[in-house]
Write a structure and sequence with these properties.
With 228 residues, the chain is an alpha+beta fold. The protein is built from five helices and eight strands, in the order E-H-E-E-H-E-E-H-E-E-H-H-E. Helix 1 runs antiparallel to helix 2 and helix 3 runs antiparallel to helix 5 (194-211).
């Protein structure tokens, strides 16, 4: 089995509810007929609208959704890509290796609790791929799980691009937080005082700056729907 991740771009003004309905009601059944399983739909919709302050967007049009799916053979992905391309201005597809340092099992077919922050990352150019993976999988994992209110954590290490127009990426991260984290950084960093928040934020930035190129980084709050 192979995991495929697709990032869908749409105008910022396009209603997230319309995109969510199109992906769940129309695209997902077509993906299943084309051989996809374990389908997840993540959408920047009205339920995470309060997350404008934590959004980092560089794409034009911006990333508005992520669909992940599993196939027996990624070579057979053409019908799936065609289905998703109809719902996206720009479709960026990647073959990834998934690891889940913090596992949760969202209810099938329902909106998962909280907010799923979908973040596209690139390694520092000076780092080898081995150095990048080592820091991401060890030092950064330990920091992220210790100082944040994360309830789920999925690492998708990019193996290769699946669509011609996809930007170069080294990883796509999914981190689930309580919905209150969109407005309150102390909820995000699981602390009560300004002093502790600043300490935890500095630890995070020290870790991030040690292995990530922040120039191309993008992060989008999304509602998660696991469709099974």
């Amino acid at each position: 089995m192979e995991k495929l991740v697709y990032l869908l771009s749409r105008e910022a003004s396009a209603p997230g509810a319309d995109l969510r309905a199109a992906l769940i009601e129309k695209a997902a059944p077509a993906l299943r007929r084309a051989g996809a399983s374990r389908i997840s739909v993540n959408v920047n919709d009205e339920d995470v609208a309060r997350g404008a302050g934590v959004t980092i967007s560089r794409s034009d049009p911006p990333i508005r959704a992520m669909v992940s799916l599993w196939m027996e053979n990624a070579d057979d992905r053409a019908p799936c890509q065609a289905t998703l391309a109809r719902e996206s201005s720009v479709l960026a597809g990647y073959l990834v290796v998934e690891s889940r340092p913090l596992v949760h099992e969202p209810p099938v077919g329902e909106r998962a609790a909280g907010v799923n922050m979908v973040t596209c990352i690139n390694k520092l150019p000076a780092l080898s791929n081995a150095e990048f993976i080592d820091h991401w999988n060890h030092e950064h994992k330990a920091v992220a799980l210790e100082i944040q209110a994360t309830t789920a954590y999925v690492r998708n290490a990019v193996v290769r691009k699946l669509t011609a127009d996809a930007p170069d990426r080294d990883g796509i991260v999914e981190e689930t937080f309580p919905i209150g984290a969109l407005r309150d950084p102390k909820v995000w960093y699981d602390c009560d005082s300004d002093e502790e928040f600043r300490r935890r934020l500095q630890r995070m930035m020290d870790s991030v700056n040690a292995f990530l190129d922040l120039g191309p980084l993008e992060s989008t709050p999304m509602s998660e729907y696991f469709l099974g």
